[in-house]
């Protein structure tokens, strides 16, 4: 059975943990995280926009979209 009642209940697999431990990281607030920069550029290109922003949660993106 798959538990879909919350995304905070699931636990990462060993493969996910390994990928996280090997990932290049940086401060995304200072635009220094290469993974976030690649994701934002891919999304901007996909929608033919100059730039895009990544938000770590739907709640955060909804708040920003209504001017919070």
TrEMBL record:
Organism: viral metagenome
Pfam families found in the cross-reference section: Beta_elim_lyase
Gene Ontology MF terms: L-allo-threonine aldolase activity
This protein's name: Aromatic amino acid beta-eliminating lyase/threonine aldolase domain-containing protein
Cofactor field: pyridoxal 5'-phosphate
PANTHER family the UniProt entry points to: L-THREONINE ALDOLASE, L-THREONINE ALDOLASE-RELATED
GO cellular component: a single term: cytosol
Family: Belongs to the threonine aldolase family.
A biological process term (GO) from this entry: glycine biosynthetic process
Domain Aromatic amino acid beta-eliminating lyase/threonine aldolase as annotated: residue spans: 3-66
């Amino acid at each position: 059975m798959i538990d879909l009642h919350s995304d905070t209940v699931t636990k990462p697999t060993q493969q996910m943990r390994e990928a996280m431990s090997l990932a290049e990281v940086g401060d995304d607030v200072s635009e220094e995280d290469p993974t976030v920069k690649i994701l934002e550029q891919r999304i901007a290109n996909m929608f033919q926009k100059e730039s895009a922003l990544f938000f770590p949660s739907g709640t955060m993106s909804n708040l920003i979209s209504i001017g919070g």
